[in-house]
Amino acid sequence: MSADANDKEMSKDESLDPNQLKNPTICVLIGHSVETITSAVVLASLGQHVHLYANKEELSQQLQQYGFEHHLQALWQMYEQQQIIVRQDLPDNAEKIIQRYETISHEDNHNIEAYCNHDERQTVALYWLFLNSIKSIWLDDNWITAFNHSHQQTTPLIMSGIKQLGYVSSLSSRLQRAWVYYIPFVFLKDGDAYSSMLSPSLWLLGEKTANSTEHLEILKPIVQHARATHRADIATIEFARSSIMAMLATRVSFMNEMSRLADSQQVDIRQVSHIMGLDERVGSSYLQAGWGFGGNTLPTELDKLQQSSQAHSLDMPLLQSIIHINEDQKELIFRKFWQYFDGFIDNKTVMVWGGSYKAGSGRTAGSAIHPLLALLWSYNIRTLVYSDKAQTELATLYSDQPLFKPTSTPYGQLSEAQAIFIISWSSKDQLDIAKINQQAMPIFDAQNALTRAQIEGLIGGYMGIGRSK
Known about the structure:
Blueprint: H1 7-14, E1 26-30, H2 34-45, E2 49-54, H3 56-65, H4 70-81, E3 85-89, H5 94-101, H6 109-112, E4 124-130, H7 131-134, H8 140-148, E5 157-160, H9 167-174, E6 180-182, H10 193-198, E7 203-207, H11 220-224, E8 229-233, H12 234-265, H13 269-278, H14 297-311, H15 317-329, H16 332-340, E9 349-353, H17 369-378, E10 382-386, H18 391-397, E11 404-406, E12 420-422, H19 433-437, E13 443-445, H20 452-456, E14 462-463
Parallel strand pairs: 1-2, 1-4, 2-3, 4-5, 5-6, 7-8, 9-10, 9-12, 10-11, 12-13, 13-14
Antiparallel strand pairs: 6-7
């Protein structure tokens, strides 16, 4: 996508010229995650200069991995070319970053003269640390000491990331500065990161010092466009973040468990989900049965929550059940395939549609495609794989697997297959039932992507999650 693909939003971005600001400031971001990249682009769109410190290789890999985020990529390239976003190598010590922007005393000059010149120092509006990106490079004691030695203790410091409960609150208490904040990215939508941050569904802010949001004036436009906001102390916001994610995982896992009962009762779980969503006490979000959940956020959150419970010697059987159900659910569609063919599945060829952990994303972390492919290959089954957004990642992961055969179209090689698996399919792409019926093969729908009308129109068999023909 070109940089002018979205005229409405790009016109707004292009009207902002940070070089014309009377008192230009720098937002210093430290990390390489998609949250870091998105924040850099959004801040640049709001008229800020951004210096992003990251491991060069990891940042490049992340940008490449998120190639499916076309609008985000286009804006990143444009702001880099205009030097509104400037990449910097992450030094081995946080003090080197802080010293670059501070006016220090004469006696300290000789310590940093080799690193930077006084003329290069600019006023920092905020520091934003993405904790999951820096953990392997900076030890907590080192970077906290560096920030505590800073001569600019009034500069706000923001932290983001998924850690054990209380971890960020503990870090904030060890920092001497008063304006310390925690922002969890509960609002970020994979595949639509830029827009979801500009207009977040829920903006949570943890404050070390209560009622101090005036020190985050730069982020005010984001807060104003949020559908819901809440601020509290950092420990409370950490707990809320973890609780929200665990609740979403619980809803998915509950529906997946109910889908197995629906199979035995010959009830369509998708219709049941719709009915449940009509009850305002329940709501409709995260009620879709399927192969489970993947990505980085939910699995990481459950892992950190488990660590927190173990650290306090607390037994959380519901949490253990959620994790078990999710892992087992990823193999359920293969078991349906095995049963359909009475175990005679050796040496077949199958078509696999999708591969990302959710429709619209290009990432496959935690996706059901990985255990599915491993099981299929154990029976010497040739796999024709079509994934509009995750094809590059899958091709890289399985370049040495002779049974992995990427295909550029979903229907072009259907005549070679004896079954279709659906892992992730965008509702925006209409399935062509007529082309599927030309082969009259069974479909194993791990996402429940087909409507009831499409299922009834199939000539071949259909097996979904909690629904069948």
